[in-house]
Design a protein that fits this description.
CATH superfamily of chain C: MetI-like
CATH class of the largest domain in chain A: Mainly Alpha
CATH architecture of the largest domain in chain A: Orthogonal Bundle
Shape of chain A: globular
Oligomer: heterotrimer
Strand order of the largest sheet of chain A: 2-3
Chains: A mainly alpha, B alpha+beta, C mainly alpha
Radius of gyration of chain A: 22 Å
CATH architecture of chain C: Orthogonal Bundle
Number of helices of chain C: 13
Shape of chain C: flat
Chain lengths: 266, 356, 288
Amino acid sequence: MNKYKWLVPTIYIIFLMLPIYWLLNMSFKTTTEIINTYSLWPQQFTLDNYKKIFTDSTWYGGYLNSIYYVVINTIISVSAALPAAYAFSRYKFLGDKHLFFWLLTNRMAPPAVFALPFFQFYSSINLFDTHIAVALSHCLFNIPLAVWILEGFISAVPKELDETAYVDGYSFWRFFFKIFIPTITAGIGIAMFFCFMFSWVELLLAKTLTAVAAKPIAATMTRTVSTSGYELGLLAAAGSLTIIPGAFVIYFVRNYIAKGFALGRV
Amino acid sequence: MSKISLNNLSHSYLAQQNNDLDWALRDIDLEWSDGGAYALLGPSGCGKTTLLNIISGLLKPTKGEIYFDDKKITHLSPIERNIAQIFQFPVIYDTMTVFDNLAFPLRNRGVNEDKIQSRVKEIAKMLDLSETLYNRASGLTADGKQKISLGRGLVRSDVNVIMFDEPLTVIDPHLKWILKSKLKELHQEINRTMIYVTHDQTEALTFADQVVVMHEGQLVQKGTPIELFEKPKHTFVGHFIGSPGMNLLPCELMNGKVNFSGAKIEIEKIPSSHKVYSKTQIGIRPEFVSFSNTGIAVKVLKVNNAGRHKIIDIECDGGKLKMISSITTTIPSSTAYVKFNSKYTYVYGDDWIIEE
Amino acid sequence: MRKTLNQKAWFFVLPVFVLVAFNAAIPLMTVINYSFQETFGDNIFFWEGTRWFKQILQSDRFHGALGRQFFFTFLILIIQVPLGIAIALSMPKEGVGVSVCLVLMSMPLLIPWNVVGAMWNIFALPEIGFLGHSLNALGIDYNYTQQPFAAWFTTILMDVWHWTSLVVLLSYAGLCAIPDAYYQAAKIDGASRWSIFRHIELPKMNKVLTIAILLRFMDSFMIYTEPFVLTGGGPGNATTFLSIDLVKMALGQFDLGPAAAMSLIYFFIVLLICWVFYNLMMRHEGQS
């Protein structure tokens, strides 16, 4: 069975790549060609869609805005989540189980519910149309995610590791950063990727809380429903480009994820 | 039960080796006879875990061979070698009870259920696990879990060698002592070859009949605890064993005479070869330095009272030394003379003892 | 895990609590308020009590959407979880294959959901899409815009394509976090591959799998954008899942009262199921 193990991920990847190929295919076609002909590769190859994106500042500006607030959110979410996850894993305290579950409940309401109240709130504190507003609002669903993921990985590290470090004379923070964090790199890597991902694809709040200065790619993409109908070619090109930043993120954290936890010497 | 022989064993984790440092193990030649208690002692990174994993079959060596009872087993898997290994962190099957944990290796080998019952109960009794036999294994404390790991090794009656990779690392200090004695007791009871890897000299010296000291991938010395203490063959052994370790200071070796601190030092075995070394050192343990009326001129710097003896810091022209003397000895106030016990004074050339 | 009692742990949790709570509190008040009132469009509110709740809970339309939703989520979970685990188990743990797998498998997750819906919309069309064209070329009469079965098939296929990688990545990270010593000990104990999976890998992946299952449950139960862009809820109401129905009611008919009531009911169903599931998974954690 081991000989054919590589077949499984290979078939899966082929399955994943087919629609993505189609997306790329569409991005190099004009909308008319997409709607009217069936072709496995562009009959009238065009770079117009990409040209539009790279030259129109509302488009490429959108990408930069998105990257900006997503990165801010990822950093805030994972940094706040780390000590909290540690506490949930190692300590018993008043209300701990309920607090942990309550965090998850914040992902149970559709964002539509929050759109208007958030808009009112962030406008009232003068943070409308800023990156930080979007980053903070995304904390609603990303922090619970990060805490839950990290708690799972932290719990897999035996508590004896902490105790041995204390016996060896480490102060808490030195232990936390020098010894503990290296053991949960897989958890941190995956938490970072998921926070990035969920914030990156979130459209509604990002659109609602911004106007011009911090307008994300999401909002610009819904503009493709113009008077002439869906500008499919443009949408496909934009969609293809949205894959790139996230691909970088997972590439960047790949070693943290795969390295795992080697039972290190304390 | 097996005699273990290691022949010219070398191992590297890299695909290509350009210098000595690329080798985790270099030219290990070793023979352990049946049923003994052995320790592999050395600091972190010296290669002892690598060596252990090669013996257990978890790692295949880059070069060299291993024999169990003169049978070449270098390429056999761990199961085929009939070994047991206990790791630094307790490794147990969380979802199973203590009983099922202990029974697991036997069930995998198709042993019949009655035999499993009696064997598991026997081992549990030996390890004081009978009370908790039907509890979930994940509920036990760290030392309990290590006992389960140990039990899984013992429960197989055909086990050749039992290997311990720093097993007491996560155990509470006050429980370490109990577990240590238990291991020694077990060894006497079941009489199988046990190899104990550690960086703690006390653990090694109390557990083992014979200790192998490793340093930077090489086997530095093999001997009983007393041999290692009284005659270290390498400066590393001298420095690593003993608390405080051996005094090692630069000296001059010329024409068979040893010059140190302006004085000629008497040694029992005077080196007569004329080999040239880039570094020569004189080694003497603090236990074998004593005050006298003549000898090397020293200044007493500090006296530390260590309970049953005193550790004294002294300084001479050749450098700083430590010496140990009994509680009752009067210590000269500032300047004095010391002499070295010639039987235990050695000269080291390029870190290795010079014996001829 | 033996946990130490330590009330000072609240300081560790404080940043998280503040950041999430302040986001969560305000809107919730608004929704709860609305759900007990009626509006005549001029923002004049009348207290209506539980009338909307009763109306929703008794409506056939709600039952229909709820039933479809449960069935959809059931299918999603039963396909994506085992599939995700199986793929994670077969992925390489070192070498260049790791990068290739991780990067390629994460791609579907990164595409904005409206683009996912739009691309599958085209991809599955019988005339101009690769999937639609190929299926029909093989002799299968396939048209998701008109056939409910085809619509379901396409929606599920799209979701599997889109989200299975989440399960894969979480499971893979969980697997990589298992220390080598466990595999080494299992080798020495003579354990079979299945034994290793059952007694080492699956238990050690317990927490990570819980998160994966909870996430997939919640997100598939609340799914909106992708099926809406793909089928619009059709043909007819064949793929009108709960969210789609809710939005139709709130924005289409501007029945804010019933819509808010439905939102709350919706929320409580999700909450209840997650709570039950969470306790089930964590039950044997508490036993030790």
